[in-house]
Amino acid sequence: MRAYRLFAAAIVGVGVATMSTGVPAQDAPTGIVGLRQATMKTLGAHMGALKAILTDQTEMVDQVPMHARAIGDVAGHIPVLFPEGSTDPESDALPAIWEDKADFDSHAEKLSELVAALAETAEGGDVQASLAAFGQMGKEGCGGCHETYRKKDS
């Protein structure tokens, strides 16, 4: 009987622990907007890993190409995450994306080129050169697009 009570208490505990935190799931964007926000967060996670490696964990520079390639794989698909009319009040995407889609798409291509250069540089093991390539990727790749096509933080 005691084992049954412990099992029941564990089940209840897991149920309570996994319940909503009070933020309804429907508040989060869904569909293509939700997908692109999740994708951009993934890119941000890889950028964070790259920064950590290149500034704090330099002995792990051999991990840089993997993260760079992951960003590059996603960068090639960024344009399809922004189909015509996929705006949302909760999104940071500016209407300028759809007003000049060709320029927006060219920024994704530029990011792909810059992450390929970062991966190649890092394969040589030169941390300082990799850090410089990372900075260029952040400024011209991510930043080049965010400057024009993403809402500014308020």
Q: What would you note in describing this structure?
A:
This protein is mostly helical. The chain has one domain: Four Helix Bundle (Hemerythrin (Met), subunit A). The chain contains six helices and no strands. The protein has helices at 2-17, 31-55, 64-75, 96-99, 101-123, 127-149. The chain is elongated. It starts with a helix and ends in a 5-residue tail after the last helix. Residues 3-24 have low confidence and may be disordered.
For this entry, give a set of tags.
single chain; 154 residues; mainly alpha; Four Helix Bundle (Hemerythrin (Met), subunit A); 6 helices; disordered N terminus
As a percent range, the share of strand residues is under 5%
Radius of gyration: 21 Å
Q: What is the second-level CATH architecture?
A: Up-down Bundle
What general form does the structure show? elongated
End-to-end distance, in Å?
A: 58 Å
Quick description:
This protein is mainly alpha-helical and about 150 residues long. The protein is built from 6 helices and no strands.
Secondary structure topology:
Layout: H1 2-17, H2 31-55, H3 64-75, H4 96-99, H5 101-123, H6 127-149
Helix pairs in contact: 2-3, 2-6, 3-5, 5-6
